[in-house]
Design a protein that fits this description.
heterodimer; A: alpha+beta; Ubiquitin-like (UB roll); Alpha-Beta Plaits; Rossmann fold; six-stranded mixed β-sheet; 13 helices; elongated; B: alpha/beta; binds flavin mononucleotide; binds iron/sulfur cluster
């Protein structure tokens, strides 16, 4: 057991190998830093984290090093003394900030980063209010086409080199480099080789200032107007922990949320930028029923009643003709409720897993110079399985049916005319890969007497339905996803679904005749009791990092920690 | 008694660069003998006991540096020869390499043997095209004669020497910048620890030395440590940390003197002796105003300080950073100190590699301020700001990764503190000429 003293406060760091920045963080003390990032190599070049360091001897005396040292580069051990706010340390920090502002445009009013900028924050907390600079600032030209997704405001750059190290160490694509020397240094790309890789937009989060901007988000919102919730990206089975930033019912951006149990610090561009469909004006907004005279918009209650009635009738006629297709985009709670409802008609009612979209192969990073995955443990993986919760939905299916029937069994039964009443849950992300339901099977849907479809957008499939429920996207509901390695994570809504839509879970509750609103944490407790394989949900809470199988879940809801990186 | 040059002993001979000529003068005999008679550790010990200190600028005891290599390392271990020589007005390495390449090569072979290096990289700045070609020829000759390559001179020791050309940056002379550059990367000095002796080029233990340091090794092993210690200056009794400044040194003299050049002298010659006895006196019959004592980084010396001995300890006594490269640049009484500093600041703002904030921005800011002086827009307060920046950047206060920043600050604080009235007058006169008001203080 090792004890480190941070500003006189003893902190037990156990056996961990930490540097001063990390040790101080354990004591709740922020040592300001720019170039240091836990996922990147240490370069100790920005000199923002200068602190005084010493050693407490066995006899209680303290000997301090004569000069300031960079906290990120200085390892701690038992007895290390860190002083972050002595006159000397404060002076060094103040000077670094003064230096950084010498050539900085301070165009915060038009800067995307304002409000979440560490140059602003540190200047306020550690800097001085006045400038002594009487000379012209450098004004290097901006590089709006650094990459298809990235814009560089060259003059705002503080040369921390995080972005460069990211492309060398994490993506391995090495597009970025630094050109020129001294205070003429600039971030640059080679002509014809833009910053274009599947992880490129992470440099925007890494950039401590507004130098690197995401073209997708640029000038869309002031960040202090955004409402942030913690969630999980539904783009693939990696299940990156994310923040959803939205305002007034519109999602404006997704950002990775650091989670060592899930993906680490980053997310891919496809997941990050793949949310726009949720803001679309084309989305289905009301439940509709197809009658002899065409489509009519109905109230939610009416739609639910007509589905209940239809399924009741058909289940009495042929229980094996009653089918539900559970999409791997559903939350565990939704899958559980739908399975419950279907199985209430009888044990013969059929439950199958919807198509699991697989695109290519797992894509590992960093890449080597030939664009192939480097040997060794990958630092990031974009998975080929393009859905967030196959494992969770399978666990439900396994429990209710003792097996996991694939989508083929549904198509076979459909072709044979054995499907009489069916509910097809959706939630599939429309990512330009074509609709999830095979086009050639669409005409066969005519044979179904009672087809219920839950969709985000109207489709050939929904055209064939008798009742259509407009679905909520993943950003509009709460629930649980289980990723490729069994990590169960909470998702949360940033805004409500549009128009008269309800979340799919609410629809199932209503179909089941259960009163009240959809409450994920209550359902998780229920599920854990009913489905032993999902014991990790037992307390109803999964914390900010999620719970792996066999791990003890937290007993209460956890507050989001504001990250300091 | 006139000093008989050792390092430049052959420099003026007609065939000073050929292997044949070098051998005729007893060249490579020491190497042959040492490889037969002494173990690696004995060589290191001999160099250590000679008190040889690095000639590259920092004056670190060479033998001691060699002992920092990990004991019993399976290899490879590398030796890097630092011929980046980018310090303005410094050209002693150039003379050494162009005039007597085999002496340097023998020093490389002996030192590489001492540190058990299997490969030596001869890192030479791009501008030294002639030096590169001369050295390449010497290397080729040496390979052909079995002096390099497998089983040197019939011994069990094998060594390869490769030339690597720099691409023109002062920072490539900083030893870890050199290593990065050698590895094909941008010369951004590395953070230490680990020091190169533990993890250097290609992540292997590496020793970086100046060629003049290595050339001295030949003579130490040939003539003995006692001979070496008979030259130069013993430790300063008032400075317990001074291990003494022994051996010969190549001094460069340039600037406003009648006959600039390189001269080999025992360590400890004074600036005044250098100028009058070897530089032909200050030009145009003028008096000197001051000098830069050992490359830009070492600061500024006034004429009154010219009796300071140029050993590793002397310049420090008058507030300079150190001996540096031993390259004295003289400026005459009519030179404006502001112009001198303007030039110095321009150099450092151009050469800062740019990774550490205090150095990148500090060197740039200092130049902008002094540039404003030159435009007649100096302000009294600026001097304090300049001094403050100069005092607070560098590895000494702990705010940067390498010593370039210390070197950038030193001439600024020296010049202002030693010539303050002249700065104040310059600002005053300039201000009266100022035509339009300065823009508002702005970030
Ligand atoms: C900015 C900077 C530039 C340097 N340039 C050189 C150089 O051109 N040649 C050199 O030998 N040493 C140079 N040095 C010193 C080297 O880092 C290193 O100390 C030296 O090569 C060691 O050799 P020595 O022990 O034989 O002196 C430089 C140091 C700094 C900080
Ligand atoms: S990067 Fe930060 S300090 Fe600079 S303009 Fe943007 S918000 Fe302001
Ligand atoms: S662009 Fe941003 S991340 Fe990249 S070096 Fe500049 S400040 Fe750092
Ligand atoms: S001190 Fe200056 S030259 Fe040295 S590493 Fe830092 S920025 Fe580069």
């Amino acid at each position: 057991m090792a004890t480190v003293f941070v500003n006189n406060q003893p902190v037990d760091i156990g056996n961990e190998k930490l540097n001063c920045v990390q040790a101080a963080e354990k004591a709740g003390v922020l040592i300001p830093h720019y170039c240091y990032h836990p996922a990147l190599s240490v370069v100790a070049s920005c000199r923002m984290c200068l602190v005084e360091v010493g050693e407490k001897k066995a006899d209680g005396t303290i000997s301090m090093l004569p000069k300031v040292v960079p906290g990120c580069q200085t390892p701690v051990k038992d007895g290390t003394v860190i002083v972050t706010r002595s006159d000397k340390a404060r002076d060094a920090q103040e000077r670094t900030l003064e230096s950084l502002l010498l050539n900085h445009p301070l165009d915060c009013p038009v800067c995307d980063k304002a409000g979440e900028c560490s140059l602003q924050d540190y200047s306020f907390e550690f800097g001085k209010a006045e400038s002594r600079m009487h000379d012209e600032k450098k004004t290097p030209p901006n590089k709006p086409d650094l990459g298809p997704n990235i814009n560089l405001f060259t003059d705002r750059c503080i040369m921390c080199s995080r972005c460069v190290r990211f492309t060398r160490e994490i993506s391995g694509t090495s597009e970025l480099y630094i050109t020129n020397r001294g205070d003429h240094s600039e971030i640059a790309v080679f002509p014809g080789d833009p910053l274009d890789n599947k992880l490129s937009t992470n440099v925007v989060d890494l950039c401590p200032v507004g130098a690197l901007a995401s073209k997708d988000f640029l000038y869309k919102q002031r960040v202090w107007n955004l409402k942030t919730v913690d969630s999980v990206c539904p783009g693939c089975s990696t299940g990156c922990s994310i923040h959803i930033d939205g305002n007034k019912g519109v999602i404006h951006r997704l950002r990775p949320r650091t989670n060592p149990k899930a993906q680490g610090h980053f997310m891919c561009d496809e997941g990050r930028l793949g949310f726009h469909y949720a803001n679309s004006a084309e989305r289905l907004r009301e439940p509709t029923i197809r009658g002899p005279h065409g489509w009519t918009t109905v109230g939610h209650r009416e739609a639910v009643q007509s589905v209940q009635q239809g399924f009741n009738e058909h289940s009495l006629r042929s229980i094996t003709g009653v089918w539900a297709v559970l999409s791997p985009f559903m939350t565990i709670e939704e899958a559980y409720l739908l399975a419950n409802w279907i199985r209430d008609f009888g044990r013969e009612a059929r439950l199958v897993l919807g198509p699991v979209p697989i695109v290519g192969e797992d894509d590992h990073y960093p890449k080597d110079c030939r664009g192939e995955a480097s040997p060794g443990v990958p630092k990031f993986t974009i998975r080929a399985e393009k859905c967030p919760n196959r494992k969770g939905v399978e666990a439900i299916l396994q429990h209710f049916t003792g097996t996991v029937l694939g989508f083929d069994s549904f198509l076979t039964a459909l072709a044979k005319g054995q499907v009489k009443a069916a509910i097809l849950s959706g939630g599939y992300i429309p990512l330009g890969r074509g609709h999830w339901f095979p086009a050639e099977s669409v005409p066969l849907l005519e044979k179904i007497n009672m087809l219920v479809v839950q969709e985000i957008f109207a489709s050939a499939l929904s055209q064939k339905a008798h009742v259509v429920f407009p679905s909520a996207t993943w950003a509009e509901k709460e629930g649980t996803y289980i990723n490729h390695q069994g990590l169960a994570q909470e998702i949360h809504w940033n805004s409500g679904p549009p128009g008269e839509s309800r979340t799919d879970g609410q629809v199932y509750l209503d179909l089941l005749g259960r009163t009240g609103l959809m409450r994920a944490h209550q359902l998780r407790r229920e599920i854990a009791q009913v489905v032993p394989a999902l014991n990790q949900l037992s307390t109803g809470y999964l914390g900010t990092q999620g719970v792996l199988p066999g791990e003890a879940p937290p007993v209460q809801s956890q507050k989001r920690k504001i990250p300091v990186h | 008694m006139a000093y008989e040059p050792v390092l430049l002993g052959r420099a003026n001979k007609a065939d000073s660069t050929s292997l044949e000529g070098y051998r005729r003068d007893g060249g490579y005999e020491t190497l042959g003998r040492i490889l037969k008679e002494m173990t690696c550790d004995q060589v290191t010990e001999a160099v250590k006991s000679s008190g040889l200190r690095g000639r590259g600028g920092a004056g670190f005891p060479t033998g001691l540096k060699w002992t920092f290599l990990p004991k019993g390392h399976p290899g490879p271990i590398y030796l890097c020869v630092n011929v980046d020589e980018s310090e303005p007005c410094t050209f002693n390495n150039r003379v050494l390499v162009e005039k007597d390449p085999h002496q340097v090569l023998e020093g490389i072979a002996l030192s590489a043997y001492a540190v058990k290096a299997s490969t030596a990289y001869f890192y030479i700045r791009y501008e030294y095209g002639a030096g590169m070609r001369i050295m390449q020829k010497a290397i080729d000759e040496a390979y052909a004669a079995g002096i390099l390559g497998k089983n040197i001179l019939g011994s069990n020791y094998s060594l390869d020497v490769f030339i690597h050309r720099g691409a023109g940056a002062y920072i490539c002379g900083e030893e870890t910048g050199l290593i990065e550059s050698l590895e094909g990367k941008r010369a951004w000095p590395r953070i230490k620890p680990p020091f190169p002796a533990i993890e250097g080029a290609f992540r292997k233990p590496t020793i970086v030395n100046n060629p003049e340091t290595l050339a001295n090794v030949v003579h130490i092993l040939q003539k003995g440590s006692d001979w070496f210690k008979s030259i130069g200056v013993p430790p300063d009794p008032k400075n317990p940390r001074d291990p003494g400044s022994y051996g010969p040194k190549l001094y460069c003299i340039s600037g406003h003197v009648n006959s600039p050049g390189v001269v080999e002298l025992p360590l400890g010659v004074t600036v005044r002796q250098l100028i009058t006895d070897h530089g032909g006196g200050v030009w145009k019959g003028k008096k000197a105003k001051g000098c830069i004592p050992g490359g830009n980084s070492m600061g500024v010396m006034t004429e009154a300080e010219f009796d300071t001995p140029l050993d590793f300890n002397g310049p420090g006594r008058v507030g300079c950073l150190g001996l540096g490269t031993g390259a004295v640049t003289v400026f005459d009484e009519d030179t404006s100190i502001v112009d001198v500093l303007h030039n110095l600041c321009r150099f450092f703002q151009h050469e800062s590699c740019g990774q550490c904030t205090p150095c990148r921005e500090g060197t740039g800011w200092m130049f902008k301020i002094i540039d404003r002086f030159a435009k007649g827009q100096g302000r009294g307060e600026d001097l304090a700001v300049l001094e403050e920046i100069a005092d607070k950047i560098g590895i000494m206060p702990g705010t940067t990764i390498c010593g370039l920043a210390d070197g950038a600050g030193w001439p600024v604080k020296n010049a202002i503190r030693k010539f303050r009235p002249e700065f104040e007058k310059y600002i005053q006169d300039g201000s009266s000429k100022r035509s339009k008001p300065l823009p508002m203080a702005a970030h």
